[in-house]
Amino acid sequence: MIPFEEARRRLLALVAPLPSEPVPLDRAGGRALAEAVIARRDSPPFRASMMDGYAVSGDPAPGSRLRVVGEAAAGRRHSGPLGSGEAVRILTGAPVPDGADRVLIQEDVERDGHHVVPKRGADRASYVRPAGADFAAGARIEAGQVLSPALVALAAAFGAATLRCAARPEVAILSTGDELTPPGGDPGPDGIFASNAYGLAALVGAAGGRARILPIAADDPDLLAGAIRAGAGADVLVTSGGASVGDRDLVAPTLERLGARLDFHRIAMRPGKPVLAGTLGAQVVLGLPGNPVSAMICGRVFLVPMLRRMLHLPQDDEASGIALVAPLEANGPRTHFMRAVRQDGGVRALGNQDSGRLSPLARADLLIQRPPHDPARRVGDVARCLSIGL
Ligand SMILES: Nc1nc2c(c(=O)[nH]1)N[C@H]1C(S)=C(S)[C@@H](COP(=O)(O)OP(=O)(O)OC[C@H]3O[C@@H](n4cnc5c(N)ncnc54)[C@H](O)[C@@H]3O)O[C@H]1N2
Ligand code: MOO
């Protein structure tokens, strides 16, 4: 067994950032930006009116009469400078004419034919948005981040039609076990519904990858080999089940028979002891335990970081220290990821940490990560907590 941290390091060393590909803006939301986007021009590119009203120069006295000499609308400027005693009818977003430094909002003037008359107590704000007030030409959206809706809007405002995003890693997901039936089927009295592939696929999608769920493989070396081959072409093959030491735990021997190079098998962690990793040709293989909670937590702590690396994203694993509101018993020799909930401003590990029970996982807010041989902890001690994202 190798330590958890070493397993993670080794797994991350097996993957590399994927090439980037052009993605049209209307498809770019949620994608990982692989190359910086650079603004082509200032925004706004001119001094722009923030309101509907009248562009004027200086501070015309209430009651004075200003001659309206033209109109500026968004997309169509008033040409020619503004003289004293003059005003230009201006609409929101329009370029402010040369010579004007202020927009009197419409509510603050009386219109009188070809003239406007400022009212007493007019709003004194300029309502002129300076050129480049939002961003200047050359402004950047840096690579290595997920494109939020606001970043997509900003990229569009930069004038970029297409963004270079990291290719989405494809993850083939293989469930093994005679007992498994897809949800919706009839598992019979001794069978169960196969849940791992669906949870893992959702995790892959949320992390920015593409999941391909392979047909379930029965506990037979040749059927398993065929199922593994069906995952060819995917960047990562994730298996669930058959990773441990039972007679039917065929994943490691079958992978080796197919020419895979195993990098490690078994980790000093809980859940997740039977995890294996290696390469099968160009494909990275991650073998997860069948226990549903083990599969999901190992997906969270291994697969998501692998996908982030492939997507040119920084790791998002800063842990926060949160005070315990219930004590913890001493930990054993393996890194333990405990399902936990926030409570009264602190954190409490859930009562049952059986890696076969999905219901507490679905209720958990956090994972408490405990190092091997962590001593018993009291209320008020600070625990290292990871966002669970599950
Ligand atoms: N003698 C030992 N027994 C076990 C050890 C050990 O070290 N010595 N390790 C235990 C640990 S830890 C785990 S975790 C499990 C995992 O073993 P496998 O990866 O070989 O998983 P399976 O035996 O195939 O299945 C375990 C459990 O999970 C259910 N399962 C499997 N696939 C799915 C799926 N796709 N969806 C839902 N549930 C699934 C399966 O029916 C079993 O109940 O081994 C311990 N044993
Ligand atoms: O350590 Mo195994 O992965 O739950 O129960």
Automatic annotation (TrEMBL):
Any GO BP annotation: Mo-molybdopterin cofactor biosynthetic process
The EC number(s) this enzyme carries: 2.10.1.1
Pfam families listed in its UniProt record: MoCF_biosynth (PF00994), MoeA_C (PF03454), MoeA_N (PF03453)
Catalytic activity: adenylyl-molybdopterin + molybdate = Mo-molybdopterin + AMP + H(+)
GO molecular function terms listed in the Swiss-Prot or TrEMBL record: metal ion binding; molybdopterin molybdotransferase activity
Domain MoaB/Mog: 172-309
Family classification: Belongs to the MoeA family.
Protein name from the UniProt record: Molybdopterin molybdenumtransferase
Organism: Hasllibacter halocynthiae
